[in-house]
UniProtKB/TrEMBL annotation, chains A, B, C, D:
Residues 7-145 form the Semialdehyde dehydrogenase NAD-binding domain. The keyword Lipoprotein does not apply. PANTHER family: N-ACETYL-GAMMA-GLUTAMYL-PHOSPHATE REDUCTASE, CHLOROPLASTIC-RELATED, N-ACETYL-GAMMA-GLUTAMYL-PHOSPHATE REDUCTASE, CHLOROPLASTIC-RELATED-RELATED. Pathway: Amino-acid biosynthesis; L-arginine biosynthesis; N(2)-acetyl-L-ornithine from L-glutamate: step 3/4. This is N-acetyl-gamma-glutamyl-phosphate reductase. One of its GO terms (molecular function) is NADP+ binding.
Length: 348, 348, 348, 348
């Protein structure tokens, strides 16, 4: 091991998040990636699963059982929800910092979790300890945290769009409608009828109308931004025939007196010192942020209808997952926010 | 010429609508396609422009100047708006029936046209004569018409989603938000930075926030459905990285007392005798309607938020353009509504 | 049942070929589609599996066990190879005509089958009876056949490219290299790592180098065209990130004395009376034949190198599968070749 | 300016190569990117043209006329052929090192250039000075060069496939057939009928049969590998419906005595110390190298036919353009070959 480097490990190597996390950790100047787990491919090089890393990340895969002996200082858990909570329960006591990609610790309580995830939570103690890992809102809490719940991809784009407006009281809180569109990597690496090329290609549809779990995640966070007063949002996800990217188009009724200039100014000043949010002058395309660590946010005020439209584009695997987790890790270890997050986007 | 067949001609051969119109007219059992115009390719076979029709539609292209001498009984004008009005003005007096794909005669008055299209209309007399060609709403007017303004592609999907709800007074009229997504053929055949493959592929974005001309077209038609009381909608179009298809996701606040069963029943009964609208049990993908003449409409009531979500998928070049025009032609000539519109979709 | 219509059934409803076959049979003026089988969805409407046919092909799915009682005159077997042979063995004796999409009866003998398919054939008697269903080469045999082995998709495009050259002795037979590219529907409907959208999209690769089973199918048929003298071809398939279409680029050394004019003339005259082959003046794109029943063939002679390059584009699900089967059915029942095959391509 | 950093400038900012070159130079630890030219956007930030670089590469664009005053030590010319030669002529005398992306200095003489490019060369003196910038073959010449002709994208993949076989005399030189497939960025950024999304998407075709200019570039280089004995290749390019990547499938007749082991061994040992070529165990997909600086080469010997098949995948904008140029720059300035070329691929 290299002295003075942060020892990091990834639990769950086969999916898109695990793969992107490995890519970023491998290139981070202050990190040493010392372990990646996969129960089904133990012993094989990581690059067997992800051949784009042949010659660069050839670390042999280990079992999750070996994690406690690794000596890792930080673990990135890229596991399905319902699975993740058990590992957090076991490892959290060991004194290692954990950044969890699942939905298991994003909500406010075991009761809300049970309601939206349909399952009794097996580590309720975690709720008091987990910090919601959106650095634009909670940087100081994250700095102190040893368990971070990395936000969902849709909530990241939705909250970056709406949090300034809710916090600054510019919109009617119960008028919010979030029409969200995600590339197919958001659906995960598992082969199914729904991820078959011939089903996805040249297709587009809505899914999960009224019941998607990211709804409550967004609602709880926006509620927090207005002093814990509850609010409801309408959230509808759609599936795009492309690999990467989320675009959120969010609508809300403006409160009296808002105009385009004040909207622009509020959003721009909210993000003035946030290194990973760009407030952009035209409604962003998701291709512009592919491979980037940035959210591109565009505020628009429709004078005719009195509504605000926020559009926000992110790379769902980066700002919507791996980059955001690394941003949190930087905060947790006292590093500059942008360390290891300097790669430029790949376009086209 | 074949006796007893309707003589039809297409003005404007180079675009996607002209091409699809030719395909449908060629296969219609009661129609003879006797002329197609193109100023830039006069004399060449139509299949030179559209090689998929080699051996089937090889008609030599003519100039629009030759149209009056053709003996056509019906003209399909596949021309840009601002251009179309001048041809309508010249030919309308000749006694030929016209179905116009442009936006020039869809609105209620020259004044509204000037406001949204930024141009003084040069054939204001046409407004009194043109019928809005949405057969699900105006079949009897279309039967009597000799000038039909074929609806825009976005308005078709939007109105099929919302007209039943507005007409039956199920929703708050000023709460309507239409988040619409279209395949690239909606942007037209012209090569530009915005239609370059590398700009569109793997990309997705909103455009025309707050100012798209289809907004007023939707507003005027919905207003008509509630007894001419005005209303405003929020309409946002987006560009999908695929060839064909529109999906509209429309939101509105339900009036008190609505529930899922009544919503379903209202929509189903509204379309019970409409051959080209399917009320479907799951939110439709656009690939299911590609190459079809149908709109697939899905009503959803969110009990939690009290909102209605309507999703509607159409093939923008067919139900959103050429099929709908042919449907109107069938009505204008006293043919069964589905005549010549029996091709099945091509999937995948 | 409708009198005077040919009673047809499809065995195997879930795949792309079964779906396309149903679409074509449903629209054929002289056919009644009386049964479609699916063991896993028995009792459900066909449109449950393929929702694009909602309202048009809603026939309830039956078990293959019910096929003998159907009264069908012709069966289309859309089953995997190794499975198909057992059904052919059982039903062939019943006097029903069979068109088989699998590879089980395309080769010359059970021995060759065993060598390339790695399995002992369980109905060797079928080899003497099956006719290779490429109507451009074997129309008269097909007319007499009651068991037709529908050609593979790659062999169809390869043989339409090369058969005229081999038969007319224009090329060195052992110099043939076939570089073939297919859309993803060629890989079938089954979900797997290889058909996952994120694996296929933006990707392209060769597979099956030197061992693909279509190699022997092409070799045997070309050998037949030169009086049963054996020959070998190099055949390499590739996977394209799109739904439909095959392009074959075939290379061969010209025999002395060939020139561009004679090549063009030979190919054009070979296909002069073949309704489903277009000899085209430019190398064809597969999008031009999507949804069409045609092969587009382009001959090119490179004076500098002395080689012939043939390019051929087909829709793999139509001319490469369902259209070709229907063409054979027309021949078997004494119908005009093009009956029921008059739909025009859908582009873009 | 930063002392001790190499001062670099890019001439021609609007295309894909200019954009990728800027991305790489910006991240190179030993380079300072001091100028980028664009005649049509002079004065605007580079990120106006390429918004993915907003906040990172905001350098104001300058005119090419200002280049001599910049103080650059190396110029990257991302200009069309026929244009590039005039700038090389003017600047070459100034003592600045030039890496030229055009085809103007890749061939052996003005005569060959005139024959294949159809134009009299206006700087014939350049032919004696230019070095062909394929580091795997000509590293030592490149180290001494002050004018490097960066190879074409197709020739890069073709030569990496075939040079070892020709140099080691494993194949019949006149039997080479190169079937090449490129993503759409290879066609350039200019909007035209051929780059329109609806023409490219879901399409695939061959072009330039027998006449593509990369043919002679490949022939001259392979000839050089066999001691200047001439040879001819058959080269056919095809257009893929995706953004980035080239796959070359190259065929040749093996000389007597070759077998799979010797082929593998020859190729592996040829590239043993070449940092940017991976000899891979399965035929590579282009998605595995997207965003990477590597060529993935796979040798295959078909025992049955006696032919070698080489497949090679590269990112056409990187190993096929910008990475290769930077690799040459590293050699020219005495830097380690891999300096600034350590980014990992972005997949999916």
């Amino acid at each position: 091991m290299t002295p003075n480097k942060i020892k990091a490990a990834i639990v769950g190597a086969s999916g898109f998040t695990g793969s992107e996390m490995a890519r970023l950790l491998h290139q981070h100047p202050d990190v040493e990636l010392i372990g990646i787990t996969s129960e089904s491919h133990t012993g094989k090089p990581f690059s067997t699963l992800h051949p784009q890393f042949l010659g660069s990340i050839d670390l042999p895969l280990i079992s999750a059982e070996q994690v406690p002996d690794l000596g890792a200082e930080v673990l990135f858990l890229a596991l399905p929800h319902r699975v993740s909570m058990d590992y957090v329960a076991r490892w959290h006591e060991l004194g290692v910092k954990i950044i969890d990609f699942s939905g298991d610790f994003r909500l406010s309580s075991p009761e809300v979790y049970a309601e939206w995830y349909g399952e009794t939570h097996r580590y309720p103690a975690g709720f008091g300890q987990a910090v919601y890992g959106l650095p634009e809102l909670y940087a100081s809490e994250i700095q102190q945290a040893d368990l971070v719940a990395n936000p969902g991809c849709y909530p990241t784009a939705s909250l970056l769009s709406l949090a300034p407006l809710v916090q600054k009281d510019l919109i009617e809180p119960d008028s919010i409608i979030i029409d969200a569109k995600s590339g197919l990597t958001g659906a995960g690496v598992k082969a199914s009828a729904g991820t078959h090329f011939s089903e996805v290609n040249e297709n587009f549809k809505a899914y999960g109308l009224g019941v998607h779990r990211h709804t409550i995640e967004i609602e709880e966070q926006l509620s927090r931004q207005r002093g814990k007063q509850p609010l409801q949002v309408q959230f509808t996800p759609h599936l795009l025939p492309l690999d990467r990217g989320i675009l959120v188009t969010a609508y809300a009724k403006a409160k009296a007196g808002l105009d385009a200039a004040r909207l622009q100014e509020t959003v721009a000043s909210f993000y003035a010192d946030k290194p990973f949010v760009h407030v952009v002058p035209e409604s962003p395309g998701i291709k512009t942020v592919r491979g980037s660590h940035f959210a591109a946010v565009h505020p628009f005020f429709d004078q005719r209808t009195g509504r605000v439209i926020m559009t926000c584009a992110i790379d769902n695997l980066l700002k919507g997952a791996a980059s955001q987790a690394l941003h949190s890790m930087n905060l947790m270890f006292g590093l500059p926010e942008t360390r290891g997050l300097e790669q430029l986007p790949l376009k086209p």
